[in-house]
């Protein structure tokens, strides 16, 4: 029986792909003078921590390690600016959380804690989360299941009592490794009250 819903953040609770794309490119352009094309960001870089993105660029021979720290700091600074400017209260997600108050809820993300909390707060969703697990709370981010394993343990539940909502390949890999029930969505707009309740009913009766 499903007792807890574990949400990814980017592409699930918030539509942050554009925020991360814009802020990373602003930082790269400012520090090293090049940007990542949109298609490449979606296929290669979406959903992974900034430092991992920089490591990929380094392995491709496009970036020196000496520039990592400056780019990372600039990217975080730009991300907060973008969130403050663009993010707003999301009535559909508020409705989802209001109508599922009988379930425990947590957000497990590869984002850093400060930006994750800001995204949830600006969209009106933070108050509904029992807790948030960021990439600073784990030794291995997704695709490792560590974040989800920690969440399940904190709720004192078995994996089969939990439903994980994920959209990215790395997130789905982490979710499946946790042993929980997994709902794969194509993006943020698919995460609705009706879809979540349908999926919970499916797992509860199968």
List the defining traits of the structure above:
single chain, 206 residues, alpha/beta, Rossmann fold, 2 domains, 5-stranded parallel sheet, 9 helices, 50% helix
Care to give the gist of this entry?
By secondary structure, this protein is of the alpha/beta class. 50% of the residues lie in helices and 10% in strands. It is built from 9 helices and 5 strands; from the N terminus they run E-H-H-H-H-H-E-H-E-H-E-H-E-H.
Secondary-structure topology with pairs:
Layout: E1 4-7, H1 17-31, H2 38-45, H3 50-59, H4 68-86, H5 91-98, E2 104-108, H6 113-122, E3 131-133, H7 146-154, E4 162-166, H8 169-178, E5 181-184, H9 193-205
Parallel strand pairs: 1-2, 1-4, 2-3, 4-5
Helix pairs in contact: 1-4, 3-4, 4-6
